[in-house]
Design goal:
The protein contains 3 helices and no strands.
Length: 72
C-alpha cells in the first residue's frame, strides 16, 4: 500500500512538472538543484561521522605515504 501511495505521488509530481510554464520550471530546477546538493552534503556528513569513509581515507594516506600519488 505504501509503495502505491509513493508511485501515485511521483506520478502527480511528474504531471505537475510537465504542466509548468518554462519560467516556473526553471525556478523549480534551481530550487531542486540546491535541495539535492544539500541532501547530498547531509548524507556525506552522516557517512563521515558513521566512519563509512575511514577505510578510504586510510588507503589514501597509505598511498600518499608510499609516494603513489600524483600532484594535481
Amino acid at each position: 500500500m505504501h509503495d502505491n501511495k509513493i508511485m501515485t505521488t511521483i506520478q502527480e509530481i511528474e504531471n505537475a512538472l510537465a504542466s509548468l510554464p518554462e519560467e516556473k520550471l526553471v525556478e523549480f530546477r534551481n530550487w531542486y538543484s540546491q535541495f539535492d546538493e544539500n541532501r547530498w552534503d547531509e548524507k556525506f556528513v552522516q557517512d563521515v561521522h558513521a566512519g563509512k569513509l575511514d577505510e578510504l581515507a586510510e588507503e589514501a594516506l597509505r598511498d600518499f605515504d608510499s609516494n603513489r600519488c600524483t600532484e594535481l
